[in-house]
Nitroreductase domain-containing protein
Amino acid sequence: MIDRSEKHALDAALEAARWAPSVHNTQPWTFSVTGEEIGLRADAGRRLRVGDASGRELLISCGAALFTMRTAIRCHGYEPVVHVLPDPDRPSLIATVRPGAATEADEATALLGEQIERRRTHRAGFTGLPVPDRLVDRLVAAAAAGGARLTPVRAPEAVGVLAGLTRAAQGVQAGDRRWSLEVIRWARPPGSSRKDGVPADGYPRRAAPTEPGFPQRDYAWRHDWGGDGGAGTSIGVPALLTTAGDGRQEWIACGQALQHVLLLAAAHGVSAAFHTQALEMDPLRAFLRRELCSGEHPQMIMRLGVTFDGTSAVRRPLADLVDRPLS
């Protein structure tokens, strides 16, 4: 019989998981609750059919939700017991999570937990305020603890390559009707009541140019949508998140490492902007692996920086995510 404190921990984990980052804010997950165990499941209906045919970005998103659940359970006084891909006959079951031994959340865990609902994705340039090297080192260590490698890209030539590949991929995708329609599906017009997708104030109407240029997705697509933010012109600190392998286990681990990095960064006033366009095109991803990633598999291109632009966040209600009513 589950006791009251364990139930509180489970409820907190479900609520926290809603706030995990996901590609285009697709929120591609559902949850089942059986006794004292939560099942995290991938929602294949929310996979990007064009941009994510392999399901790589979907599983990275689910991995981020898994780390968020683990953090919430720790913050509520239990060590989480996690089994990743526990049933080969149920490939959509990403993980099971339940409260284990009683524990006391340390200061570092509590700090991460405080950022779960505060963290935001940024979609423009950053201010000129630097990201401290000591923080970057801590972010690198956080990724390593989750089985991934975060590599800050400092050399101007390498930064130029990342920016150039991003521009090339964005140019190709913007001219392809399939890609454009898929992005439009997840773009929310002003005043929309939808609880998923990218809200109109989640990106600037006209972003100030950075040097070199790292283009964002064209969520407005022929509309004059977007917020008033995005005045910063700094690219921040470009970084690559890579893994040694490139299968489902690694993608889930990468998502967990990514969320650890994002929450830790947010706790110190640093946001992330993502650029996955080049990683969605196999020839460009292979080029990056060979030329910039020392043979490891690139899973995420991001920029880390400081911004004062506040954006809203939308998430689906738990009633739409959990297959039984919460009692």
